Amino acid sequence: MEEFVRRREVSGVGVVTRRDLAEVQALREEFHAVFTAPDQPTAVTLLNTLLQRTRITPHLAEHDGHPLHVHYFAPGSSVAEHLAADCGVALAHVLVENERDRLRTCAAPDCSHVFVDESRNRSRVYCDSRTCGNRMHVAAYRARRRDAS
Ligand SMILES: [Zn+2]
Ligand SMILES: [Zn+2]
């Protein structure tokens, strides 16, 4: 969890507790449900439910070498509240722009990660090309070699 906060640069987070972990895991399930919703109305309802109980305070910030940007999380937010606000608003924009087809689940069978496909031709199928993508390519290569021999 501390590693996640550091790597993803979740700002304004103090000491991370076991409770934070449980809250973020529950939130992850909620976001996962939005990504895998069968249709737009379901995705909208699920995301609205999440946003309704999230404190959101737009605030302009410039820190840690990042140019001016908008924070949506309220002052004093927990990690889960921070992620619910900022990721929730970002996801709301994806739905508003009618870009729900960019919300993907990783194509690797042993991976349940979801991601937003920001590629120009909307062709991304793996959450991470270096890990899942590479692993699947190696598996496909081995399978082809087996077929050939
Ligand atoms: Zn920031
Ligand atoms: Zn993956």
Strand order of the largest sheet: 1-2
| Structural class computed from helices and strand pairing | mainly alpha
Cα end-to-end separation: 45 Å
Strand content: 5-15%
H/E element sequence: HHHEEHEEH
List the ligand species.
zinc ion
Structure explained in plain terms:
The protein has 149 residues and is mainly alpha-helical. Helix content is 50%, strand content 11%. The protein is built from five helices and four strands, in the order H-H-H-E-E-H-E-E-H. It has a two-stranded antiparallel ribbon. Strand 1 and strand 2 (69-73) form a beta hairpin. Helix 2 packs antiparallel against helix 3 (40-52) and helix 3 packs antiparallel against helix 4. The N and C termini lie far apart (45 Å). The mean pLDDT is 93. Bound molecules: zinc ion (2 copies).
Q: TL;DR of this structure?
A:
The chain is mainly alpha-helical and 149 residues long. It is built from five helices and four strands. Helix content is 50%, strand content 11%.
Topology:
Layout: H1 2-7, H2 18-35, H3 40-52, E1 56-61, E2 69-73, H4 79-96, E3 103-105, E4 114-116, H5 129-148
Antiparallel strand pairs: 1-2, 3-4
The structure holds zinc ion (ZN) (2 copies).
Salient structural properties:
two-stranded antiparallel ribbon, mainly alpha, 4 strands, 5 helices, about 150 residues, binds zinc ion
